[in-house]
Amino acid sequence: MSGQAVNDSPGSVADAVRAAIVRGDFGPNQRLVEADLSEQLGASRAAVRSALVTLAGEGLVERIPHRGAKVRAVSLAEAIEISEVRLALESLCAAKAAEVVTAGQRTELAAIGDRMRAAVAAGDVLGYSNLNEELHRRVREISGQRTARDLLERLRAQNVRHQFKLAMRPGRLAVSLPEHLAIVEAILAGDPVAAEEATRAHLRGVIDALRATVS
After folding, report:
1. Would you kindly state where each structural domain of the chain is located, as residue ranges?
2. Does pLDDT of 145 surpass 70?
3. Is 3 helix (H, G, I), strand (E, B) or coil?
4. d(C-alpha 91, C-alpha 194), whole Å
5. What is the per-residue pLDDT across 14-65, written as a single tens digit (0 to 9) for each?
6. Does 122 have pLDDT greater than 80?
7. Cα–Cα distance measured from residue 67 to residue 89, given in angstroms and rounded to the nearest whole number
8. Is 10-71 a CATH 1.10.10.10 domain?
9. For residue 194, which of 2, 18, 122, 186 is within the disulfide window of CB 3.0 to 4.6 Å?
10. How many CB atoms lie within 10 A of CB 171?
11. What's the predicted TM-score (pTM) here?
């Protein structure tokens, strides 16, 4: 994240640090030193301090009295809980998206599906993982369900490490791809019931895979 200048506002600093955590620039339990962040981002210590308070409220950062802040580590059990909440919210967004999707958005979603197929064929796990996130993000945006979208953005940021580890499992892409394509096809067809069920089926699979890790 070094050298990423941002506006000297708590919101801009929070956005930059949040993005760095999601990318994995900062790992679980890594200390977030105000002076270092201030220098890296070209922001004031006050803006950094306020941003860390915001990120603590989102569950991304843990603030320890008299010791500063660190990236909060999300346990596997908590990752399962987050995925259970995602199931309810993502399925709502998929159903809403199927009701309001435009012709241009259909073309965009179909193109994402094609790129996901190509990534799996090439064995490109990182590329597929990025497309996975792009698809879910676009479905949330198309749905127009702002409250669900905002909640899901926070949950995704907390859960990104477990999601990527899951994607790296041998054979996982072959399971994940048809689940995502079913979501795309239901939205393209304008079928909210099928879109909701396809999303639920996908996230039930994610939850089962995470639970298998525990056992």
Report:
1. 10-71, 76-214
2. yes
3. coil
4. 10
5. 888 888 887 778 888 889 998 899 988 888 999 999 999 988 888 888 888 8
6. yes
7. 36
8. yes
9. 186
10. 7
11. 0.75
Among 67, 2, 29, 68, residue whose Cα is nearest residue 17: 2
How crowded is residue 14: how many other Cβ atoms within 10 Å of its Cβ? 23
Quick one: pLDDT at residue 15? 86
31 phi and psi, to 5 degrees?
-70, 140
Q: Which CATH architecture has domain 76-214?
A: Up-down Bundle (1.20)
Distance CA 193, CA 95 (A): 6
Neighbours of 102 (CB within 10 A): 9
Pairing state of beta strands 31-32 and 68-71?
Answer: antiparallel
The H or E element spanning position 2 is none
